[in-house]
Amino acid sequence: MANPTTNFGWVMPTATDLVTDLPADFNVFGQAVDTSMAQLKGGTTGQILSKTSATDMAFTWITNDVGDITEVAAGTGISGGGTSGSVTVTNSMATAITTAGDVIQGTGSGTFARLGIGTAGQVLTVNSGATALQYSTPATGGGLTLLSTTTFNNTVSNYTVSSISGSYKHLLIVGSGLQTANAAVQPITFQFNGDTGANYNDSGIRNNAGTIQSYSDILATTYQTGLVLANTTDTSPRFGNFQLTIYNYASTSLYKVINSQGGCQASGSVYTQTNSGNWNNNTSAITSIKMIEGVASNLKAGTIQIYGVN
Prior knowledge:
The protein is mainly beta and 310 residues long. It has two domains: 72-136, no CATH class; 144-309. Helices cover 9% and strands 39% of the residues. The protein has helices at 17-20, 22-36, 92-96, 215-218, and strands at 47-51, 59-63, 72-73, 78-82, 89-91, 103-108, 111-115, 123-126, 133-136, 144-151, 158-161, 170-180, 188-192, 200-202, 205-207, 212-213, 240-247, 256-267, 270-280, 289-293, 299-309. The strands form six sheets. Strands 10, 12, 14, 15, 16, 17, 18, 19 and 21 form a nine-stranded antiparallel beta sheet that branches. Strands 3-4-5 form a three-stranded antiparallel beta sheet. The longest helix has 15 residues, at 22-36.
């Protein structure tokens, strides 16, 4: 008996043992096999064999877990899966995202697609066919953009703002704290695109006494092409102030409708209030505005600002 097996060391009869002591040798061999295989014995129906340690032949019978997973199937929005080995599943929506700000939108039943982030200022909207989302620049409306500021300091009798952008819907002109250097009544007027023709109309102004004064009553002949607004020689806080809106100023087919409101102390206790509708009988787009104060008189104070209106 000197011929052990390689894996378990069971003692096997040698060639000479087959003649001299065969029954005893097989008895030794059989007992060794029986002992080694004892761990495999037993168990009940449905049990499975499980290792208890890394030691050779270290087994035990255990009850199989009810509901063992036999397959991982990838459903909608998931990729991967499998029936054996190490199974990996992936969130397909997550892998569709490539850039910060991406969103995932449905494209149909159980389908989706990546929508890249828009640009600064854009908003998320529905496309014209109402089938998908898209980023769009919002329609402008109600915003004001300051285009020009002119501050007077007794040095300017007229001033022109040129190269006015045509990218807005309307123009708003605002005057604040305006004061003339001339003691006489000197209205502030405007000319568009250097037009000195008889293409301006005004509905007149009303003072605090209720008197409606015509356009020609206020303006000198030289400046009857302007629009009557506010002025003052008063040094009190009641300086001339006004606002004037030019509608569709960039149109090349329409006359320019103008609304103006303003007020000032002309002299003494007489206050001129302007609330009138005006128009410019010219279809050219307005690209420059000339501000004129009185008859060769300077504005000694005040500011006029021009805004683009969307």
